[in-house]
């Protein structure tokens, strides 16, 4: 084998004109047809054979093969799997082939057809070309002129080492070098007439003009995506077959998931006209992602309801979508593709992910994308918007990704430059959340670490209106079509439930505040889980999330809003807090001094909305219609606004399959004969259906010791719990802690991330009066979704209630094994986290009787559960 620094094109005259090819060159031939390309490929391939080169053909197109022969290594790859799988497959092939191989690739135009994107063709070249260069290869690429936009050609020109413009005029071959890296001469960049091994530069003005005239004027074609949309719009006026073909192509481009349950559901309910509206609002190219697909599909189901029950009650939407291809473009533009490749490996999944998590916050967007961002902002004017994650895997059957990726409210105020900067910052932050540790660990647990996951983004107009410098909807929340986590045996689970708050819905899905959402069973909306006025006073919403038009997302006291003009009757949402008013009156009588302000204290009970409007039956009907269409329970995020005429308008902002196991088979609840062996027993306040299961370990956070810790140490307790969680991953164990597990406010409970408790069999929250710790039954929240999806049983133990038994000493008086499981645990933390082992502890619950019990087998009558 010859190791000359110069490589022959197979045409001696052309070699002389460009001073030969070099090892590492990527050679792109911009040509009219593959027949024209064959004129220059054949001599190159012949010369490479004669030189004993290793010949590799990367085959991915439907056109006839470009090269054949027993000495050619042909590798068939499938670009329809998507950009990343294909790009990675090519990368792996190049890596496995090794150094100094010679390559020819099929027509790059075929990639455009597979991905519906000229931009992604350019991205593929940008990530492949440098790797070929690094391994001292030489590669030929045909780039068809009529299938290439100027922007694609410019991006390829920037990346490649050699770019030739190839023309065949009246049977004569002309090669015009447009770029020859690190080489130049007085005539190199003239067109050259190639014939019989020679290459004669066309230098005279007359000959150049004749050649230009013979070639004809170059046609500027639209990019593939624009042409696709034009064809689909034309299909609206064509016959049914043409419409069906257009619908299929556009659905593949926007929705993905062909053959999967969610994808087929979306295709069934979104018409061609629906898809064209979506396509006209896509920035860049690529799929719109799971959250967008769920929102669009659910709205289509309700809009197209045969009985027309819902259309007039739905708030319109005018969402925009940042296509998933923009995520890859952002990575490629900023030079981070190598990190992306590393992150796909087992070894680099978390470590390279952490690197990307930081990098993604600080990149730059291509000019063309920034221009589209500007157009988006011009559409919304200065209306507040929310920038939401919409990854390919999100909101699918089996994988909700609830709360795993970020979303950001933007007040969208200020100058155009300030608004653009805020939008770009939010998009960067959503991209970064795709690489957060919680999201990556979730993918590992769900078996999705190797799945093609990329981040599209849904940009929505925030539902609501201006109210005294603030923007918010009258109400918002989460709705579940199946209320399987009931607190009373008479609740009709099939009627559904709501988790309802005043203002933005963040307080309904998050678990980071002191408030409590209003839980509504739709079979009897006024029947609440809490009926005692003192309980209602303590467990009501007290603060409201709004968009402050001057500062952004803000939290304000509910009392401060009551009485302001929201163009609706506040009695729809609030009632006087009779318990608090009684306490204030008693205090005034005892002290002789007036207390408080002139504003009445209120609770957000939504009595007026639930009793005096069609809202409850409307929501029940919507949920039933969606669950019927999905053939599965659904989880819906919604907003509620009351018009000036008093009409109810519901905005469906998200819909996904409700991850649930159902109540399960009935169990025989054991009878307690020795209360000393009961860890806890209660009526209601549990989630997880019917269970009877052994518990090998109890991991208890001791509230009296936890209370003595400062903020950093409390977070250290959460990290230690995470280490214990991983150590006990294969064992059935129960977590027992004060207040709220998973809160971000350590004063309310233990601030664990879900990945730090995800192996638990059961999660139990308890009260502790001295620290003000109380459970919060988070029906409908993201935390709730995580528990249900992972199959973790939940119970709340209010030890002051008369029907509750709670003996934490049963666990904490046993030897503490935490230091055996985590050998480097700090002593001051190891004394707070207590791990007790049991041979005979079991957990049992029954939905019908609403009983939950955790006790040793010796304390129970009857046979113990199977271990």
Description:
This is PEP/pyruvate-binding domain-containing protein. InterPro entries: ATP_grasp_subdomain_1 (IPR013815), PPDK_AMP/ATP-bd (IPR002192). Residues 287-671 form the Pyruvate phosphate dikinase AMP/ATP-binding domain. This protein has 867 residues and is α+β, with helices and mostly antiparallel strands. It has four domains: 6-215, P-loop containing nucleotide triphosphate hydrolases (Rossmann fold), CATH 3.40.50; 288-461, Dna Ligase, domain 1, CATH 3.30.1490.20; 465-657, ATP-grasp fold, B domain (D-amino Acid Aminotransferase, Chain A, domain 1, 2-Layer Sandwich); 675-859. Helix content is 35%, strand content 22%. Strands 5-4-6-7-3-8-9-10-11 form a nine-stranded mixed β-sheet, sandwiched between helices. Helix 27 (782-790) links the parallel strand 32 and strand 33 (793-797). Helix 5 (118-134) packs parallel to helix 6 (150-159). The mean pLDDT is 89.
Q: What's a concise summary of this model?
A:
The chain is α+β, with helices and mostly antiparallel strands and 867 residues long. The protein folds into four domains: 6-215, Rossmann fold (3-Layer(aba) Sandwich), CATH 3.40.50.300; 288-461, Dna Ligase, domain 1 (2-Layer Sandwich), CATH 3.30.1490; 465-657, ATP-grasp fold, B domain (D-amino Acid Aminotransferase, Chain A, domain 1, 2-Layer Sandwich); 675-859.
